Amino acid sequence: MRGNSMSSVFQRYAMTAAVSAALMILFASEVSAQAPRKQTRQGDALEKIAVEEFGQLSVAERKLMRGASARETQWIGASQDPGDPSNDPGHPEKWGDDRTIRSGVLAWVVSDPEAAPFIHPSGVGIAGAKIAGKLDLSYQAVARPLTLIRCAIPDGIDFSYASIASLDLRASITGMVFGDFSRVKSDLAMQFGSYGTVSIYRATIGGNLDFSAAHLTGSGAAETVSAQEASIGGDAIFHQDFTTDGLLDFRLAKIGRSLSINHAHFIGASENGLDAERIAVAGPFYWVAVEHTPHTQLDLE
User: Fold this and answer.
1) DSSP H or E stretch at residue 40
2) Average predicted confidence (pLDDT) for the chain
3) What is the DSSP string of 51-115?
4) d(C-alpha 254, C-alpha 176), whole Å
5) Residue 45: enclosing H or E segment and its boundaries?
6) pLDDT at residue 77, as a whole number
7) How far apart are CA 261 and CA 239, in angstroms?
8) What is the dihedral of CA 228, 195, 185, 248, to 10 degrees?
């Protein structure tokens, strides 16, 4: 009797487990099917509001609206291959209206409270777009991350006095970048691209300031990165053939971890290098494998 009883218990347990597994698979399938429908509805709603605000949208602007509710970065061009020559932001003249987003439209999507309910928690991410006009986020609250990969932003970016979750300008080409008195809650990343002068005077960056493999040349400015009195919670990174022909000005800055200049190039006939007078670095300072000129200074007074 005991054996029969135990057998019945195991049979009931196996049947219950099988039913539970089947229900879980069915539930997961329904959730997976519902997610795209939800994104489509949110994209429809966001596009409708944008049309009311800005009139007719370009093909690229419609892609921006459709992609804002999704986790994935939205590629604006035909190819999603970062190495495809058609995605080279160094030749934006080859990008037509189908890859052009008005700066005002982009600023509205990432900062306007009316658009916020339709934006994915991971924020807005676009790649391979040309931004027409200066991207002006000054004094705005950008509650979710903003990611612009391989984008051409020739008129630059202004996020002075803004509050931003994080800003990633990876592999992009920009004009001047202004972020004085701004608050970036996480990382400010300008890696693998070419950028105009960058000013983050008295800015607060909660995470890392990362210029790995960035190029800041040709502006003619004495200071290519102005970070006087900035507060950086993580690392300040200038690695992987970072190149500049001007000064990195970190006077009176505060860095929570390390200041690392490693495999970097200071070039040109004008004064260049690092001015770090009265800086406070909680972790180590690295000056490793640095190429320099007779005009390069390292000021740690």
Assistant:
1) helix 2-54
2) 89
3) HHHHSSPPHHHHHHHHHTTSSS-EE-SS---TTSGGG-TT-GGG--GGGEEEHHHHHHHHH-TTT
4) 23
5) helix 2-54
6) 86
7) 6
8) -20
pTM of the predicted model, to two decimals? 0.85
Q: 26 burial class (0-12, 13-18, 19+ CB within 10 angstroms)?
A: exposed
Q: What whole-number percentage of the chain has pLDDT above 70?
A: 88
The per-residue b/e assignment along 257-278, b for 16 or more CB within 10 angstroms, e otherwise, is bbbbbbebbbbbeebbbbbbee
The two three-digit tokens of residue 245, written as one number:
């022909």
- Is the distance from CB of 26 to CB of 48 less than 8 angstroms? no
Give CA–CA dist 94/86, Å, rounded: 8
Distance CA 93, CA 173 (A): 13
Any residues with CB less than 8 A from the CB of 70 and at least 6 apart, and which? 39, 120
What span, in angstroms and rounded, lies between the C-alpha atoms of 282 and 264?
Answer: 22
Return the SS3 of 275: strand
Count of C-beta atoms within a 10 Å radius of residue 10: 10
Query: Taking Cα atoms as reference points, which of 84, 77, 85 lies closest to residue 59?
Result: 77
**Residue 286 CA: distances (Å) to CA of 221, 262, 281:** 25, 7, 11
* Residue where the block lists tokens 């004495």: 222
Higher pLDDT, 35 or 67: 67
Mean pLDDT of 256-275: 97
Give CA torsion, residues 209, 276, 179, 225, to 10 deg: -80
- pLDDT tier at 14 (50, 70, 90 boundaries)? very low
**Average pLDDT for residues 108-117, to the nearest whole number?**
95
Alpha carbon distance 260, 288 (integer Å): 8
How large a percentage of the chain has pLDDT more than 90? 78
Q: What's the CA angle centered on 133, arms 55 and 119, to 5 degrees?
A: 60
172, 152 Cβ separation under 8 angstroms? yes
Q: Which two tokens stand for residue 86?
A: 């058609």
Distance CA 121, CA 116 (A): 10
